[in-house]
Structures are given as structure tokens and as C-alpha cells.
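Appendix B: complex inputs.
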Amino acid sequence: MSGTVTPGLEPFDHPGDLLSAHLDGELPAELASHVECHVATCSRCRADLDELAAARALLRQLPVVSAPPGFGAALVRSRQQSSRRGVALALVAASVAVVAGLFVADPATPPSGNSPALALTSDSPRFDAGMTATTRPALTTTVPGASPAPTVAAVPAPGRVPPAGAGAVADPSPPPPSLVDRVGDAVTGLLDAIGG
Amino acid sequence: MVRRSSLRRDGDVPTDDVPSWDEVARRHGDFVYTVAHRLTGDHHDAQDLVQEVFLRVQRGLATYRPGSIEAWLGRITTNAFLDDVRRRRRRPVVALPDDPDLVVPSALSADEQVASETLPDDVTRALQALPEDYRATVVLCDVVGLRYEEISAELGVPVGTVRSRIHRGRALLRRALA
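Resulting structure:
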């Protein structure tokens, strides 16, 4: 018996996977009636039907699974942080764009590791009655982008500009033909990081 | 149409209001967590999955069409699970015989059919032993409560395939628990 439905089923044809569909009320009346008639006379299919019904009941009777304490609260918290980080990164993007414009020779590289993926903390209030938040930090995952964004500031950090000025600042001779491109790249990179 | 499963709650009534993210999380968080746990089989993976689901909820609420929100969440959860499975493919999909009769276990005596003696952990383990595609189909049917046509549309497979997966999935489950 294959899984295909044959309208002209004979009474002695075993229903096969129609048995589960019959249990679920997924068969048209004609096929349902065939299954009923067949099961009434075929002990093997009747036993299969019982087995399938038992498996279905086991699945449907499984209890609700509760999340570990603090998980729900952490989820809510992480969303709030994610939103705030988005705003912070937008500000950083604007700042870096300015820096890139001022320091043409310093290639603007978007910060890496600031993925906006969910980052969980666990000091939030309740999330749901089914997911109680406790004082125990059940979930304390690392927060890759959680360090304060303003460290990437509009003012170049001293360490980033070699004292000898090697390629970092103000080489007046070459005109900046790629200024727009670099600023654009910087902003694009950051927007990607934010939106990614 | 959505068939209510035992897991879906009375609060999951079709509504014309689009809920906020916080509302979804508060009212349906345990439902999503349970579906995730059925699919993944452990808390660690369930938590990862739930995080992904709520990211998708955040993006998807704008286009959410009023209706059964837990059916919607169940779809998102299952799709996120299958996406992850396809991405990682930690283990190959087990090929099953084409003939569903071959996987239907032999009949047990009435004494052996006492479902109440089976522990939830055993069922969860047996569920994890199913190939992911079968597991996802069975969960959409028996946990989320979708009808075959809805599952077919959601997974992009013919209704006949849905029927076959559910049938084989339950048969394998019962055999594993025998």
C-alpha cells in the first residue's frame, strides 16, 4: 500500500497511511468510510490504528515545558538592549563618518563583533507567569556588542594615530578623490552591522 | 482553519488586534518555548530557538495577519528550527522506506498499550529520534494543531507527503516507546 489515495479502493485494500489521516479527520467522507469498513474486518489494521492513536495521544498529552527561571525576563531585556544598541550604533555610524571625512588616509573600517544578535541578561522583572524571573542569573550569556559605543568617538584616539603620522593624518599632497567613497563605505558597513 | 491541540490555550482566540511584541512574549512565551523544546529536545537548544523566534516575531509583527497567533508562532518556530537544521545538518536525514506499512509496528497486546505508563521524557526522547522533517511535521500537527493543508503550505510539500510523514512519525514513535 503506497501513500497514494486511490478512489477505487477495494474493501480488502489496507488503508496504510490513511489510518493516521482518518484519526485526524483529514479524509473525505468516501475514504473515511472505506477505512471504517476495512478496520472493522481487518484485525491488523485495527491494531495499527490503535497504535497510532496511542502515539498521537502521548504527543498531545505531553505537558507544557517551562523555560528555566529568568529566561523570559532575559528575552525581554535583550530586546530592549537590542533596540538601544541600534540607536547607539546609528550614532556611532554618524561619528565614524565624520572621522572618516577628517582623516582621509585612515581607512574607515567598520567595527566587527557588534552583531545585533540577541544578548541575554537576567536582571529583568517578570516576563510571564510561566517564565518566572528570579534573582538567580540563570542566563548570563556574553554580550558581544555591549561595551559602550562612545569609545569609537569623533575624536581620534591617540593610539590610533602614529606619532610619525605615517599614513594616518593629513598628508596634504594627495587630493582625496575617494573621500566620498570611504565615508560611504564606513556608513554602509555600520548600517550593515546594525541591520544584520 | 486551525485545529486546536491540547497545548494551545484558551487565550489563543482569533482576534483582529495586532499584539505588541511584549504582549506576544508575555502571553505566548511558554507556548513558543514548549514547541521549541518538542522540536529540539533540550533546554539549551530550545532557548537558542526561542531567541531566534522572537527576533522573527519582531520583524514579522508588522505583516502579521490577525488570526490564531499561536498557530502563527508555531509556524515561525518550526520554520526557524528547520532553517537551523538545514544550516547545520549535524546529522544526515535518515532515509525511510517508501512503503509506510513497513514502518508500522506490529500490534501489541492490550496490556502493552497503556499510554499512561509512558513518561514524558521517554516521549520527548522518542520524538528526538525522528528525522527532523518528520518531527517538524508531527509537531505542527500534534502540538501546534495545524491541519494537513496548512502544514503542506507551510513546509512546501504536498498534502500526501504530510500525511505520510505524520503516519510514519507516529508509527516510529510508538515503536520506540513499545
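Residues 97-116 of chain B have pLDDT under 50 and may be disordered.
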